[in-house]
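User: Can you recover a sequence for this backbone? Please restate the input before giving your answer.

Assistant: Of course. Working from this structure:
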């Protein structure tokens, strides 16, 4: 009977043996490298001493130190989301609804913050905004701040420094989602309101803003989760009172102290709740329109007064967005600590730190490691992405939506959660590895050699970018070509290789560039999984060097600039291939 039922399923969905094998391997990949680590985290958090126990979750409420971590992380996420909204809403409106000279240049420049993780920018911003940094010295030169007065502590305990850097890094993601939402607003609705005498502000408040809410919430949720679980930036600012940093500090004793697992469960649950709340909020309202915003363009030329306001607003954001990059470049060119003390700019400049970057025992291996990890993860993501996109677009599958949801799940999961889950679930004491041969354990256990799991974690984290890029290519390619090929006697594999993949090559290339570039500067996975110097990728080496006295921060800045230019080249390549569709991969 079971065989009969399975045969009916196979016939109904036209599941040939090769498709069944491919589908099974894909499911196995997700079970081992996504579902299993998450289940392991939940098991370790709730199952203590072979009994169900909520002790560590109770501590989150009763212990003031743990409660402070939760409150600070939540407050950080909320503040960054508010700040990015304040910047991105008018920015997107100005650049989509008004025509003015230089608009296309601004559209490109405002995406620059995406080329560098905020914790790298923090290295230089500490020099700019320190107690005796450039900003306070400029204020003294302008006689705004008295030389005898105490310097302004711009970042306080570090919280506002984290907020500033996270905002400047994440507002492009919010902007891209809002622009995509604005492009889908039917302009005839705005024109009808305008004909009835509504002002431009009333049109925006009553028509445009409500209709773009789904896109706004998509960006807001990504920004909130990203900032709520950010690890690198608080570490550089030495702001330790957040959940991600506490999880990072407890990596070494994860198997002795389950609090780390409990905190990971908390951020997973809060992230899931944030997504659910967003879907619930937008799902209870109706946003359907008879037309589509991209059919016609509702743009107006602006007068000089409004143009001045736009230039000042966008110019100010651009300047602040470029400040972390400028500060890191200046730090990388500073000869030594004494050359940028009590001066607005460094006294002398040198390229010595860049030569050290490619010769130093702690930096050159990190560059090579990052290249190895990123190239390998791109290959893994490419294979998995092509398989899933092909199955979703070309085959009728049972649980079609579930496969799509699981593949996109890493976009909603904090990197620190996946990395911590890998660290615990793939140790030699865990269920999966307990009975494996010692040689195989040495390859998989991240405490012995993190190479395999770093490659897999990079691939899993960035798989949604690859999948969405290839999926769009398959959707835009007519299946008639493949049917004609198979009618001529070609096998499905040969058809895929000879016909389909060449037709979607641009999408594959764009997805590969994005996976590679973001893997090169991945933070959470790198900081948690790479425990020994010989396995450090670029981001772990930057953090390690930044903690070293003397020239450490300056070599770290030079290494950050090298990574920044690698990412610039990658994003320019992806932008050239995808064009205006680049922003679509950052949508949930």
């Amino acid at each position: 009977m079971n065989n009969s039922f399975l045969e009916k399923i196979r016939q109904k969905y036209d599941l040939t043996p090769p498709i069944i094998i491919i589908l099974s391997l894909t499911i196995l990949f997700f079970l081992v490298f996504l579902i299993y680590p998450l289940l392991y985290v939940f098991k370790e958090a709730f199952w203590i001493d072979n009994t169900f126990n909520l002790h560590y979750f109770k501590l989150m409420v009763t212990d003031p130190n743990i409660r402070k971590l939760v409150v600070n992380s939540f407050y950080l996420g909320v503040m960054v989301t508010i700040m990015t909204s304040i910047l991105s809403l008018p920015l997107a409106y100005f650049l989509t609804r008004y025509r003015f000279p230089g608009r296309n240049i601004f559209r490109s420049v405002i995406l620059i913050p995406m080329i560098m993780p905020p914790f790298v920018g923090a290295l230089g911003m500490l020099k700019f905004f320190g107690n005796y940094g450039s900003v306070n010295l400029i204020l003294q030169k302008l006689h705004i701040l008295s030389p005898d007065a105490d310097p302004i502590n711009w970042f306080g305990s570090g919280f506002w420094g984290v907020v500033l850097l996270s905002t400047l890094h994440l507002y492009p993601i919010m902007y891209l989602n809002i622009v995509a939402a604005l492009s889908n607003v039917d302009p005839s609705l705005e024109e009808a309101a305008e004909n009835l005498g509504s002002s431009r502000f009333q049109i925006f408040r009553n028509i445009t803003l409500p209709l773009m809410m789904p896109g706004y919430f998509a960006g807001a949720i990504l920004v909130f989760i990203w900032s709520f679980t950010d690890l690198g930036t608080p570490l550089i600012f030495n702001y330790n009172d957040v959940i991600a940093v506490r999880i990072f500090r407890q990596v070494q004793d994860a198997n002795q102290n389950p609090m780390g697992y409990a905190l990971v469960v908390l951020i997973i649950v809060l992230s899931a709740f944030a997504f659910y709340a967003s879907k619930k909020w937008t799902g209870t309202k109706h946003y359907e329109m008879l037309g589509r915003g991209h059919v016609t363009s509702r743009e107006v030329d602006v007068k000089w007064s409004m143009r001045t306001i736009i230039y000042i607003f966008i110019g100010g954001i651009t300047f602040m967005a470029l400040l972390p990059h400028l500060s890191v470049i200046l730090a990388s060119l500073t000869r030594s600590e004494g050359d940028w003390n009590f001066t607005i700019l460094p006294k002398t400049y040198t390229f010595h730190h860049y030569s050290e970057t490619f010769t130093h025992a702690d930096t050159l291996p990190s560059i090579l490691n990052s290249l190895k990890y990123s190239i390998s993860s791109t290959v893994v993501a490419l294979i998995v992405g092509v398989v899933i996109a092909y199955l979703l677009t070309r085959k009728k599958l049972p649980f079609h939506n579930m496969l799509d949801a699981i593949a996109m799940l890493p976009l909603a999961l904090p990197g620190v959660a996946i990395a911590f889950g890998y660290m615990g679930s793939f140790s030699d004491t865990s269920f999966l590895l307990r009975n494996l041969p010692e040689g195989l354990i040495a390859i998989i256990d991240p405490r012995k050699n993190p190479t395999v799991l770093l490659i897999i974690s990079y691939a899993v984290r960035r798989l949604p970018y690859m999948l969405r890029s290839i999926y769009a290519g398959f959707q835009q390619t007519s299946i008639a070509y493949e049917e004609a090929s198979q009618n001529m006697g070609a096998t499905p594999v040969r058809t895929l290789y000879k016909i389909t993949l060449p037709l979607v090559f641009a999408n594959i290339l764009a997805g590969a560039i994005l996976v590679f570039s973001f893997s090169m500067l991945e933070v959470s996975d790198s900081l948690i999984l790479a425990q020994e110097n010989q396995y450090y990728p670029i981001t772990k080496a930057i953090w390690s060097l930044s903690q070293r006295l003397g020239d450490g921060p300056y070599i770290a800045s030079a290494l950050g600039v090298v990574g920044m230019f690698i990412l610039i080249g990658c994003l320019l390549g992806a932008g050239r291939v995808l064009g205006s569709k680049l922003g679509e991969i950052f949508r949930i």
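That completes the design. The longest strand covers residues 47-48.
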